[in-house]
Amino acid sequence: MSETIKGLDSFSETYAAAKRKFSEACETAQGTLYSYRHPEAVDPDGEPLFIHVATWGVLKASNALLIISGTHGAEGYTGSAAQIALMQSGVLANLPEDVSVVLVHGLNPYGFAHSTRTNENNVDINRNFIDFSKPLPENRAYLELHPFLCPEQWNPQTKAEADEAIERWIEANGREAWTECIMKGQYEVPSGLQYGGQAAQWSSDSLREILAKHLPAVKKLGFIDWHTGLGQPGEPFFLCFSERGSPEWLRACEWWSVQAIENDDGYDGSDRPPYNGLVFYGVRDAMPQAAVTGAVVEFGVLPLKETFDQLRIDRWLRFGDVSGDAVQLAQLRRQVHEAFTSADPAWRSQVIAHAQQIQLAALEGLKAWT
Ligand SMILES: [Zn+2]
Questions:
Q1: Ligand 1 centroid from CA 71, angstroms
Q2: CATH number, position 52
């Protein structure tokens, strides 16, 4: 059987299949599996939802690799496949004594199971790691644009009108302001896009619990949060949120190359926008004793504008006026799914080959990090 076919095998079409595959791969690779059950939310078949955690190595390990999948719904199908490919590769069987590996599968299991970006409360987990005891970040531009980003009706006419209004806004305010508005998160419209919530969510609290329980002694943490939607089709796009030029940034450049870390091409010509509440910050804040070298790694699927329209459709399917027929709505949901995990076998095998390289580079870097 060729490597390509092996890579394709690591993908799943449903959350239930992905969690089964993840558990089986963990067992075969002789990891230890833990599960964190969601207290209320269920999958489309009414079955319970879990974050699964697979670990290798001892608790007192000082160096650890943490890899997360499923922060954003359908992107989880790609991150899950990357984690499964790592387990299937056999490298986890022979870790040095001071290195542990922790794979977190389906951080936002509701979004994963329902192929929707946000969680059961429409909260974007990757905007939820803020200090909720302080005043929430503002995003006035989002409030202006919300009616056009999220029209009640989604049809060619309403979309054309909304897009025209958005274009006029961009002409008046500039493309940088637009990119910032749609990327940095908003904390005021619970049914809107990129909603960061009013309180810490179950997924966020669970991640903090997982870090405390499985990585108590870590001093040096390698970290990958798998995503899709930004960057060139099938190619990795790195978002390293360490300060440019800091030791953590330079180490990320060593592991994954300067070109990869410094590339900002995923924003269609805009600079990288400021983000609020990222998982990356959440991990760093929860582990003040550790140096964290890591990145959000995206894989591109569609052009950015099309991807963004899929996010608008995703949101409309949950909160808009959806009076269309069920088959059509299911097709739209499937389209959202494939905008974040392509069904194309060539895309899938290319992505898994890249993902494996990125994971192995992190593991090698971590072993050499003294
Ligand atoms: Zn994402």
A1: 7
A2: 3.40.630
